[in-house]
Design a protein that fits this description.
Structural class: alpha+beta
CATH architecture: 3-Layer(aba) Sandwich
Number of strands: 5
Shape: globular
Low-confidence stretches: none
Oligomer: single chain
Mean pLDDT: 94
Number of domains: 1
Largest sheet: 5 strands, mixed
Strand content: 25-35%
Length: 163
């Protein structure tokens, strides 16, 4: 049975393994090398999740997607307080093992992250899709997310492969 639930401390090893796979998958895409250097989780990835698992709702949410009892996906959002005092939920991670995609696990996790954002009074929710990653862009659009900014980049080291 597919589903999603709040992440627990005993999910850390599975989340870390998925995070490494997500990082490698994204780093190979257009824009991925700069994404990895700027926003990707550094090693050891376990350390970067320690503050997010079990954090108070006001700080964010950590969820896992499951098939039966096996963790096959994870999602992380944080709550940012904006200059006007309003809150914005930011999805930093949403990943499903490639062999478990297409059965609704990502949707179930995103539903939990959106519900969490609403519960803390966030004015909106942001997520990142790399250029050319239509599957991710289309996925987020099914949840009503639309582009509100486009980041442009120019490599200065002569290597435009990471743009």
């Amino acid at each position: 049975m597919e589903g999603a639930r709040a992440a627990r401390a005993d999910d850390l090893a599975a989340i870390a393994q998925l995070a490494k796979a997500a990082r490698d998958e994204l780093a190979a895409q257009r824009g991925g090398p700069v994404w990895r250097a700027q926003l990707g989780r550094p090693d050891p990835v376990e350390r970067s999740f320690s503050n997010q698992l079990g954090a108070p709702a006001e700080r964010g949410s950590a969820v896992v997607g499951t098939i039966d009892a096996t963790v096959v996906g994870y999602g992380i959002s944080s709550i940012e307080v904006l200059g006007d005092g309003s809150r914005l939920a930011v999805v930093s991670d949403l990943y499903v093992d490639p062999e478990a995609r297409g059965v609704g696990i990502g949707e179930a996790m995103m539903d939990l992250l959106v519900d969490h954002a609403r519960s803390v009074g966030a004015r909106g929710i942001d997520a990142l899709a790399l250029p050319g990653d239509r599957a991710t862009k289309n996925f987020f659009e099914t949840f009503g997310l639309k582009a509100r900014a486009i980041i442009v980049h120019r490599a200065l080291d002569g290597d435009d492969g990471d743009a």
